[in-house]
Amino acid sequence: MTLLAGLLLIILFLAFFIYFSGLNPQDVTVFLYADHSFTTSAAILVIACIAVGLTFGVVANFFNLLTYQMKTMRNKNREKRDKEVTSTYREGMSRLLSGDTKKAQPLLQKALDRDPSRLESYLAMASVHIQEGDAVEGISVLNRAREIDPKALEVLFKLATTYEGTGQNDEATKLYEEILSLEGSNRKALRSLRDIKIKQSLWKEALDLQKRVIKAAQGGKRVKQEQDKQLSLRYEVARHALLEANDGQGKAELKELKDIIKAAPDFAPARVTLGDALRSQGKTDAASQTWLEGYKALGKSVFLSRLEELYMTAEDPTTLLGIYRSALAERGDDLMFRLFFGKLYLRLEMVDEALEQLAFVKDAGVDVPQLHLLLGEAHRRRNRIDEAIAEYQVALGLEPRLRLGFTCETCDEASPEWQSRCPKCGNWGSYVLEGRQMMVAKAAPATEPEVRAIHHGERSA
Is 57 within the bounds of a domain? Predict the structure, then answer.
């Protein structure tokens, strides 16, 4: 069928040539350049041009076909290689995720050798080295990946966290800053960089970064959490500024602490520090009022400790007793308050009053070592030795059998009884007597006396 079609085309071509020649019998002179020309019929010239065009078309088509075939072959080879590399990489990752780094490493290295441009292979290989404790080699692998694509965020993050994990915070900081130069609102980079600044106690820089985190997190689920973090950083900036301020200064910081208390009334550190600052400025009444309000609002014992320290240092227990007695009328059922009131009475040698407050707490069902310690001291001061010993025993966790307790040598988990297996770390036979290491320390062996014969005359000497 193809041969017949070819013969038909040739016949049609010849017929066309004869017809065209009959219509154009004249000759045409063609100049190739100034002194050279040739003359031929118009029909032959046209047919020659058509033939040349067809020849070029066939050659071009053949070249395109050859190029297409080569491209197809390369694509097939590339696809085959990619499948092999992907299969090897996945097998290596499977080994890595199962914790078998010894088998994962050669598989991932093979994937890298076959295709050195795949970033995920570098990331996985770096994880192998890091898990094996060779962070230096892991960093080297990640830097090679970084050379391939300097803007790959996954590589930059992995490298930054690796530096951070090895304590190279300056290098990690540079990388997080580089990530932010590429993507200024990247929340993960902002939080990581903020956390580094917190570890370095660079509170002002951490606060500035936290403001950027909140701006980037608008509408997210963690906005409230980030706002609380910002409040804490505001507190640290104000607290350290107060520590560095000279006497008579720090007004802006005091205002900041008051603003924090207003914004978050349950944030105890701001109330404690505000009272400390007022006390350092000699404003005793203001400090006392701040701590008393703090205790009434939050019920935390640190405020009562601060009040006691303030007035006992000033040798003014009368004022403190007046404050406590007034507060007791409002907070008669506050067991924490009564415990500290009893402690204050005991410190002032008002033993009967102390016992009254402490007994009230004990009768309410409170059973904490601090309470028994105070009761033991109160009974001792009343020369009630048996009652004092009983309370001290409870405070120290001792029983009539005087069990000394055991501890795990591996994880320091304590237990009143010896156990064959530690419930925390899972090791068997690890429970020993607490402090055993100190008791079994070997003393230097004593020097044995020299044994020798006694010569004549030495005995009498």
Answer: no
